[in-house]
Every structure is written in structure tokens, then in C-alpha cells.
Design goal:
Length: about 675
């Protein structure tokens, strides 16, 4: 039957190759990189299996002088790298999709910590790779050096072709790569690579021409270009030089992959940007070239995708995050199972794989990154091994996911929650400013649970140990969550903070009990909560001071690419920011804070204090039920999610999923429960 989504499944010619449809997984980092090629290949292969017509690598260093360590990206330094890359191209081709590789030659972004080579840039400049402030400078690339770099790029393209890639990129985006830096207005080199725009575009043009000449007979040559840096006149602008650059190179590549720079803008979180947020920047490109254009914008709705194509914004729907949250998104659209799409929530936990140097993980998709080492498939799970019934207490993210996955296995599952609404912390947190999209964690799971006949959900059902035993299920999983501490214990304080004042916790605020007047928020949690509550209270008319022992506010959000935006936003809301300070004591009207380095004390007038420190696992029920397990009244008892150990939402979902996969299995605690790449 014809469908309005048919357009998404049209094949698209890209130079000498043809993409089977318009679903295009753009290059994205993942923390596997060159170090774990098997994990990487299976992750990419899963996207192809799920229907992504093109699946690309992450940025892949073409030469050892372009070493992005400590980050784990791809390597195509020599022929020795070909077999590892072939694992990926084979995994992608197996499902009829095209494989793309993003060749990358970095300038001052390469700190070369591993190779100890001297990085090249336009001129000698401070290195920014790795920490952002690497000591050391690049060396100015002479014209001979540029010739050499072109040779390396060409050799890498030939190797990429041998490794089986169908699309080969020239990369000039994300404030990364020598080609991108060359385009800058600051490029005042005196030779033919600096000064005029024509000169500044020369190096990128040469890379494209070289690549076409070397491999263009059978491989498509793509350009990834950032059309705006969101820096105003100080950077590339979509309505400024970006137009001229695209016009000058318009028909040269076989594909334009366009986005905005830097990475924090390209992969903006849902807290700060919505689906399709890049359209206004990239929409001009199609008017200047006849070549296919791919763009991104965290599209999860097939209607938005069709609309982006019909409005002439792009030809192929690019995605990193939507393909991570749901590798089977294209196939679900094809099968008209739209309600099954596991929509990305825009939290950027996936990004922390790269920024923390570990394999990628995803809040919505607990199987992401586990394809090879645990043999997990996002859509398939082993069938049940027994007829045993399972009672799950707590329908937060951990309980919902455990119930859903056990139900998918075919088990009879009873899920209860004391609240009328499912979702636990996600139900509450998604009501905080700009976190609405996080509700998708609940919505997707509830939709699935409603479809599975062997799961029975009982809301408004608080359970005591007696209730649990009377329910009669032989297996019990407790997903009872955690409670924010009221005494200030956390990373900094190992004893309660002394004093007498009106104390609030995030739980109070999320249940609608808000302080007023002058409020001090003490953040020893360091992720989003302190900053979001500051935003909530400032918007409710409070005079807010955010105090944290860390060097900066919401410090861990650096890894989700949000830290600068949070900082800027809180300043715009007139929140006073006080990093490097710990809350020492308080009275009903005054708080005393200590500088974490000098120990200097100061006082701040305040009417109430919000403590965002540690959480207490709600594990009382577990301890009450343990004797029943010992007495044989229960066959198994498992504590999962925040009730076991408070952590981020992604970890609660993972914990629920793991419990479902491990159910009815014998787990040997002495054995590492996954394969390790060595
Ligand atoms: P997690 O992140 O581990 O899923 P949450 O705090 O989000 O944890 O969810 C825990 C859920 O457990 C909440 O919805 C809460 O209402 C529910 N819950 C806690 N204790 C009980 C109980 N004794 N009986 C029923 N539900 C409970
Ligand atoms: Fe989306 Fe968050 Fe998953 Fe990344 S981790 S793909 S942002 S849901």
C-alpha cells in the first residue's frame, strides 16, 4: 500500500554509488574508535540491519601527525588499519547499505599526545585538542607540508576504497580539521592559501579534487562542511561566506553533508534546541548545488523527515542520535510501526562515550555499545526459560525497562508503583524547565508494555514486604528508586552540614514545594539537577545563588556539551554563580561558605537552602525481604536501578534491561560478563 513515507525509501544516487533509501547515519564518535574495532563494527552493522541506507565511521585520522588521543577515533594511518575497517564495511554491506568514511586531518585540534608528532596548522598556534588547553603549539604548515598532507589524504582515500568504503569524506566542520581552519577569515597566510576567500578555499578544493581523482571512479566523494559557527561575524555564517564557499565548490563533491559548528551546536541537547533546529542555517545549500544534500536535526518524526525533503531542505535525512536511540527507526517507518520508534530524548549521554573515552551508551537504547561484547540486539531478546511469574516493584525507568524486556521474553510480569503515574524520577524531572522530551523514556516503555499481554501494570499500589509475599510471585525485582539527601552528605561532606534553616531537596521542588525569597542552592551533584533547579527558581522569582565545590557549575555537563550554555543561561537569569565554594553551615537567615582552596569563609544572606548532594537508595523493602529469600519463600530477589546505586537515568534503564536479560540465567560473579577486546 502506498504511504506518505514512501519518499523516504527512494534510492538516491550519490556520484557512482546509490543509497538504497534516504536514511543516512552521518559520521559520529562513539568511544570505540580504533581501539575496539569489533564492538564498533557490530554497532554500525546494527544500524544497517535496522534500515539506515548509509552508515558512516567517526572522524578517521589519516596520518599519525593528526592524532586525537586521548579520544578514540578511527585510524587509517597505514595499510595495517585496513582489516579493522573492513570489519565495519562488511557488517554494513551485509545488509545492503553503503559505508562512508570521514577522513580527517586535524590541525591544532590534534594534540598528538600518543604519537608525539608535531601538529600542523595555518600558523604556529596553541593546541586545543584533548583538554582544550594543551600546552604546546602547532607548526605553520609550509606549502611543501600542505603538498605532503594532500598526499597523505590521497593515500588514505585509496586505502579506504580498498577497505570497502563507498563514500569518502573530505571533512571541514566542527571547528576541526586543517581544511576547516583554512577557511577562517583569520587565515591571513601570505601565500595562495590565505587572504582571499578563493585562497582560503583552495586547500579544501584540492582535497576534493585529489580524492575524486584517486577514488572517484567507484566511490562517492562527500564534503562535510559547517555552514555556521554561531559566532556572528567572527566565524563562518550561513548568510555570509558559507554561501560563497558552497557556490565555489557546488558541483565538485558528489554529496554535501552540511551542519553547524562547533559540536555543541551541531549536537545541541533537547534542553536548548528542538527537532529541525539546523534547518534555518542549512536550507540555502540545496539552492546552490544539484548534488544531494544531507543534514541533521535530531529528526525522529517521519512527518518532519518527509517535510524536510518536500520543503527542499535536504535530500537525505542525516542522523547520529536518532540512529543511536533506535537503530531500527527506518524499518519501523517502513513497517508502519511508528509507535514503536524509540525516540531520542536529546540528553547527549551518547556523547559521553567519546568525551569520557569509553564505548558509547544511550539513555533510550540500553543495547547501544553492547552489540558485540554482550551480543545484545535492540529488537530481539531470548525467549523465556520458565513459566515463573515476576513481580516488579517500582515503575521508574529501571522497573519499566525490566518489565518491558521480561514481558518481551514472554514472562508473566506484574509491575506495581505506589504513584498514580508511571515513570518515577523521569515523570518528575521531565516537568522541570526544558526537559519535556525526557518523557519519551516513559512513553515508549508504556506503549510497549500496553501491547504486551503478559505484563500487568498496577499503579497506585504501594507495596510492603507483606504485600509482596502475599502477591505470591516467586521472583521479585525491586526498582524502588532513591531519595535526595536532606543532610548535605556527598562528595565533599562526609558528615551532615550543621545548622538550622529551611532545607529543601530536589524531591521537594519536583513535587511542587518551592522556596521563595533568597535561595542558596548547594550543588555537590555536578550534573544537570543543580543548574535546572536554579533555572526553575529564578523563573519563579527567587533570588538564587548557586554554590558548588567544583571548579565550575554543572561541571559534568561539559561531557554532554551543555556546560557553556547552562552557564550563560543562568547568568542571563541573574543567578549568582559561586564555584569553588562548599557550604559549611547555615542558620535561618545566613549561610556560611568556605573557599575550597583557600579555606576563606564568607557569609551569604538566605531564606532557604536547596541541597543537591547525594541520594539515599530506597532499599528498605529489599532488606525486609531478604529473610524470605533465605527461607525459600522467594526464588530470587534483585535490587536494580537507583535503589541499588543511584546514578543517571541511562544507568537505571541499563540496570533494568540487564536484570531482564539475566533472568533465569546462572551468573558466575567471578567471570567478566562480556567479551573484552584485547
Ligand atoms: P529508578 O531510576 O531506579 O527507576 P525511580 O526513583 O525513578 O528509580 O523510580 C522508583 C519508583 O518506585 C517510583 O515510581 C516510586 O513511586 C516506586 N516505589 C518506590 N517504593 C515503592 C513501593 N514500596 N511500592 C510501590 N512502588 C514503589
Ligand atoms: Fe538520544 Fe540521549 Fe540516546 Fe544520545 S543518549 S541517542 S541523546 S537518547
Amino acid at each position: 500500500m502506498p504511504s506518505r513515507y514512501d519518499i523516504l525509501f527512494q534510492p538516491i544516487q550519490i556520484g557512482p554509488v546509490t543509497a538504497p533509501n534516504r536514511f543516512y547515519q552521518v559520521p559520529h564518535c562513539n568511544g570505540f574508535g580504533w581501539r575496539m574495532p569489533k564492538g564498533l563494527a557490530d554497532m554500525r552493522g546494527m544500524k544497517a540491519e535496522g534500515g539506515w541506507g548509509v552508515v558512516c565511521t567517526e572522524e578517521t585520522e589519516i596520518h599519525h601527525t593528526s592524532d586525537l588521543s586521548p579520544f578514540f577515533e578511527g585510524h587509517i594511518w597505514s595499510d595495517d588499519d585496513i582489516p579493522a575497517l573492513q570489519l565495519m564495511t562488511e557488517a554494513v554491506h551485509k545488509h545492503g547499505s553503503l559505508a562512508g568514511i570521514e577522513l580527517s586531518y586535524n590541525g591544532r585540534d590534534a594534540s598528538n599526545l600518543y604519537t608525539r608528532a608535531v601538529p600542523f596548522d595555518l600558523f604556529s598556534r596553541g593546541l586545543v585538542g584533548g583538554s582544550g588547553y594543551e600546552p604546546g603549539q602547532s607548526r605553520a604548515a609550509s606549502k611543501d607540508d600542505l603538498k605532503q598532507i594532500r598526499k597523505w589524504h590521497r593515500a588514505a582515500a585509496i586505502r579506504a576504497k580498498r577497505a570497502g568504503f563507498d563514500i569518502i569524506y573530505c571533512y571541514a566542520a566542527h571547528n576541526l580539521t586543517l581544511a576547516f581552519h583554512m577557511l577562517s577569515k583569520d587565515n591571513d597566510r601570505a601565500d595562495e592559501y590565505g587572504g582571499s576567500l578563493e585562497n582560503r578555499t583552495r586547500f579544501l578544493r584540492e582535497l576534493i579534487e585529489d580524492t575524486k581523482e584517486a577514488v572517484g571512479d567507484t566511490c562517492a566523494v562527500a564534503v562535510r562542511f559547517a555552514v555556521d559557527e554561531l559566532l556572528g561575524a567572527d566565524g563562518i555564517q550561513h548568510d555570509g561566506e558559507a554561501r560563497d564557499i558552497v557556490s565555489m565548490l557546488a558541483e565538485l563533491p558528489d554529496l554535501w553533508d552540511v551542519n553547524i559548528s562547533a559540536w555543541k551546536n551541531d549536537s545541541i541537547t533537547s534542553r536548548f534546541g528542538k527537532e529541525g533546529h539546523q534547518e534555518k542555517y542549512i536550507s540555502f545549500v540545496k539552492g546552490l548545488t544539484t548534488k544531494p544534500v544531507v543534514g541533521v536535526g535530531r529528526y525522529t518524526s517521519p512527518d518532519s523527515m518527509v517535510s524536510a525533503i518536500e520543503r527542499g531542505i535536504m535530500d537525505l535525512i542525516g542522523a547520529a542520535r536518532p540512529s543511536i536511540a533506535d537503530p531500527f527507526l527506518p524499518n519501523k517507518i517502513k513497517a508502519n510501526k511508528l509507535e514503536d520508534i524509540r525516540e531520542c530524548i536529546g540528553c547527549n549521554i551518547c556523547v559521553t562515550g567519546d568525551t569520557r573515552f569509553v564505548p558509547i551508551r544511550c539513555t533510550q537504547n540500553p543495547t547501544m555499545g553492547e552489540e558485540w561484547r554482550r551480543d545484545w540486539h535492540p529488537e530481539l531478546i531470548a525467549p523465556k526459560k520458565s513459566e515463573d511469574e515476576i513481580l516488579i516493584v517500582g515503575a521508574g525507568p529501571a522497573g519499566l525497562e525490566a518489565a518491558r524486556a521480561l514481558g518481551q521474553r514472554g514472562y508473566h510480569v506484574i509491575l506495581t508503583d505506589k504513584n498514580r503515574e508511571a515513570g518515577g524520577r523521569v515523570d518528575l524531572e521531565s516537568k522541570l524547565p526544558n526537559l519535556t522530551e525526557w518523557r519519551r523514556v516513559i512513553d515508549w516503555r508504556l506503549t510497549q508494555i500496553q501491547k504486551i499481554e503478559n505484563i500487568f501494570f498496577y499503579p497506585s499500589s504501594p507495596m510492603t514486604a507483606k504485600d509482596v509475599l502475599e502477591a505470591g510471585a516467586p521472583h521479585v525485582i525491586l526498582a524502588t528508586g532513591s531519595t535526595w539527601r536532606r543532610d548535605g552528605l556527598g562528595r565533599y561532606h562526609s558528615r551532615p552540614i550543621p545548622g538550622d534553616a529551611k532545607i529543601f531537596t530536589p524531591d521537594d521542588l519536583m513535587s511542587g514545594n518551592l522556596p521563595s525569597g533568597k535561595v542558596l542552592i548547594y550543588d555537590d551533584d555536578h550534573y544537570y539537577m543543580g543548574g535546572v533547579l536554579a533555572e526553575l527558581l529564578a523563573e519563579n522569582g527567587c533570588e538564587v545563588t548557586l554554590v558548588t565545590p567544583a571548579q565550575t557549575i554543572s561541571a559534568w555537563t561539559e561531557y554532554t556539551l551543555e556546560q557553556e550554555r547552562i552557564y550563560k543561561w543562568l547568568l542571563a537569569l541573574n543567578v549568582t554563580l559561586l564555584p569553588h565554594h562548599a557550604l559549611a553551615s547555615f542558620s535561618p537567615t545566613v549561610a556560611t561558605v568556605t573557599h575550597t582552596i583557600t579555606s576563606a569563609e564568607s557569609t551569604l544572606p538566605c531564606d532557604s537552602i536547596v541541597l543537591v548532594t547525594d541520594r539515599i537508595p530506597n532499599d528498605a523493602l529489599y532488606h525486609e525481604l531478604k529473610p524470605a529469600l533465605a527461607e525459600g519463600k522467594l526464588k530470587s530477589l534483585r535490587l536494580i536501578g537507583d535503589a541499588e546505586a543511584p546514578n543517571i537515568i541511562a544507568q537505571a534503564i541499563f540496570s533494568g534491561h540487564l536484570a531482564a536479560r539475566e533472568f533465569d540465567e546462572i551468573i558466575d560473579p567471578d567471570i567478566t560478563p562480556f567479551k573484552v577486546e584485547r
